[in-house]
Amino acid sequence: MSGAVMVKAEGVHKRFGALEVLKGVSLNVQRGEVVCLLGASGSGKSTFLRCINHLEKIDSGRLWVDGELVGYRQVGDRLHELREHEVCRHRAEVGMVFQRFNLFGHMTALQNIIEAPIQVRRVPKAQAVTRARELLARVGLADRGDAYPNQLSGGQQQRIAIARALAMGPKLMLFDEPTSALDPELVGEVLDVMKSLARDGMTMVVVTHEMGFAREVADRVVMMHQGRIIESAPPEEFFGAPQHERTQQFLSKIL
Amino acid sequence: MVYSFTTNPRFEWSVVGEYFFSTRVLRGLLLTLELTVISMAIGVALGVLLAVMRLSHNPLVSGASWFYIWLFRGTPVLVQILFWFNITALYPEIGIGSWSFNANNLITPFIAAILALGLNEGAYMAEIVRAGILSVDEGQSEAGAALGMSRLQVMRRVVLPQAMRVIVPPTGNEAISMLKTTSLVSVIAVTDLLYSVQLIYAANYRTIPLLLVASIWYLMVTTLLSIGQFYIERHFGRSANRQTPATPLQQLRTWAARWRAAA
User: Fold this and answer.
1) Nearest C-alpha of chain B: how many angstroms from A37?
2) Whole-number Å distance between alpha carbons of A65 and A29
3) Which of A99, A165, B76, B97 has the most CB atoms within 10 Å of its CB?
4) pTM of the model as a whole
């Protein structure tokens, strides 16, 4: 079942102990759409993003990616948790880029990229390497394949991390504050790669503080506050005429 | 002290020289090395297994590992050696399915020694491996999981290789400690290095020089192990250090070059 909707969330709740982080989040992301999630820290935007590939289990509500329930199987009214290999299969289809890159420190850039295709998808090594070289060229690092992560700048590491996620041929990419850990002068190179991905029609959900990127690239900007979505609008509308009081406050502080 | 070492005739250095390469001593040394290598191999394999079990989300699995470590760390290894040596009193027959063995034939003193040393070492290695696994940033496992790797794949391909940097140095110490701990098996008449020299001095009463023979051999093997440890650490530190530390040979060359330049 593959319709026009890539991500569909209905009343997603998540709590960490006594702290309720998500209090009923509902959101649809269309195929090919770029959605930017904004909000103060602690608003639940990163947690929601991590729920989409089941890095966090949701406590109630429903979450679908490409028509399939995330992490659970519905039998009648009951939800059954999926087995590990089924969860892995889901995750392999969804790329994720982290704030702190999380490149495998003991592997070169190229090894980082070919690891999952070989281990998870059983792609022959030669084929995986060819594909990895293409991806390295795509993120502008064709000559750094043999470098270890600690020999690369933050911006280069994040571009390798994007290439690593793309190597699995994901149908959806999740970005968790991909430029927040970078020196200001390195932000641009990462955003450029993300822009080119968006232009190629990749479906993307991006948690970010880069207002310029949201304004330029997003099809829709979503504002989260205290575990809820309080505003969702195309960028011109969102930045031009924010409806919610909290959004106005947030934007006045940041812009 | 050096003066006393070399001049006190009761050290009987000539006797030391006489027995240093004797067949019985060399055979004992070989057995000590075998015990060390096999017991360490069992200990490391068991340690990895127990550490992964200990970190499992299943309380039964982690509980079993906790119990094992509690039991084997809580009793002296000498007692464990004696226990395995006398296991036949407990289980005269050991059987798997329709296979059955007379325990006296199966558990020779050598097997008893390896079981005791290896199973005991596993408990210590488990804690070392666990510390290593916990030292790896959680983001690494998350990145692996996000790529669709299973928990086992993440452990084997991502976490353990990076945990090695923390695991290797204490494991080297364990290997050195194991080499010396093997001397305990002399109590169950396994002819390791120590028991071999004991047998010799029991006959000729040259106790001190023969203990010196054993000590010097232990020292030499320990030194070799330390050198091996340096190179293994260097190998696993590769990705963490921008510059790998120079080997002693490289350092020597650098010094020589500097000295020549100065001269």
Assistant:
1) 20
2) 9
3) A165
4) 0.82
Contacts of A65 in chain B (CB under 8 A): none
Find tokens 């034939």 and name the residue: B105
- Count of Cβ atoms closer than 10 Å to residue A89 Cβ: 14
Q: Are B123 and B50 in contact (CB under 8 A)?
A: yes
Copy the structure tokens of residue A61: 């509500």
DSSP state letter for A83: P
DSSP A99: T
Complete DSSP assignment for A195-252: HHHHHTT--EEEE---HHHHHHH-SEEEEEETTEEEEEE-HHHHHHS--SHHHHHHHH
ipTM: 0.91
B74 at interface of A, judged by CB pairs closer than 8 A: no
How many cross-chain Cβ pairs, A to B, lie less than 8 Å apart?
A: 75
Determine the Cα–Cα distance for residues B225 and B175; give it in Å rounded to an integer.
8
DSSP B9: G
Distance CA A190, CA A157 (A): 10
3-state secondary structure B213-255: HHHHHHHHHHHHHHHHHHHHHHHHHCCCCCCCCCCHHHHHHHH
Taking only the tens place, the pLDDT of each residue in B171-193 is: 999 999 999 999 999 999 899 99
